Amino acid sequence: QVQLLESGGGSVQAGGSLRLSCAASGGTNGRTMAWFRQAPGKEREGVARIYTGSGNTYYADSVKGRFTISRDNAKRTVYLQMDSLKTEDTAMYYCAATRAGQSVGLSFTAFTYWGQGTQVTVSS
User: Fold this and answer.
1) Angstrom distance (rounded) from CA 112 to CA 57
2) Which segments within the chain are labelled E, that is strand?
3) Sequence-distant (≥ 6) Cβ neighbours of residue 16 within 8 angstroms
């Protein structure tokens, strides 16, 4: 069983930066970790994912070049550095993880474990 705890959300003006953290109780190594987000009235969408074994990453087009996902396996933590934030980035951000040994894409059905979410609000 893996428990995920997100932190780092908050309010920021457009153009600003935030860094989200996701601490995984069951460890991060050898699984896919990802960030998803959901704005009010919209479907949950994948933002970025990392396979913690190789470090291979993938980003949604909407955040490419602005967000960076990374991991520290020793600290059992995955990060999402968000720069050049836009008002449309406002959403609840969720950390997700697969079972160990799985390398998957950004489909939310592929992820087994989910955090409670952290709110990110970007104002103009």
Assistant:
1) 19
2) 4-7, 10-13, 18-24, 32-38, 45-51, 57-59, 67-72, 77-82, 91-97, 113-114, 118-123
3) 85, 122
- Give exposure, 58-83, as e/b (b: 16+ Cβ within 10 Å): bbbeebeeebbbebeeeebbbbbebe
Round to whole Å and give the CA distance between 36 and 44. Answer: 7
Q: In angstroms, rounded to a whole number, what is the distance separating the alpha carbons of residues 35 and 31?
A: 14
Tell me: the pLDDT tens digits for 30-87?
A: 899 999 999 999 999 999 999 988 899 999 999 999 999 999 989 999 999 999 999 9
Of 46, 51, 35, nearest to 103 by C-alpha is 51
CA–CA distance, 1 with 24 (Å, rounded to integer): 10
- Distance (Å, whole) CA 7 – CA 53: 23
Reported as a single tens digit per residue, the pLDDT across 1-27 is 899 999 999 999 999 999 999 999 977
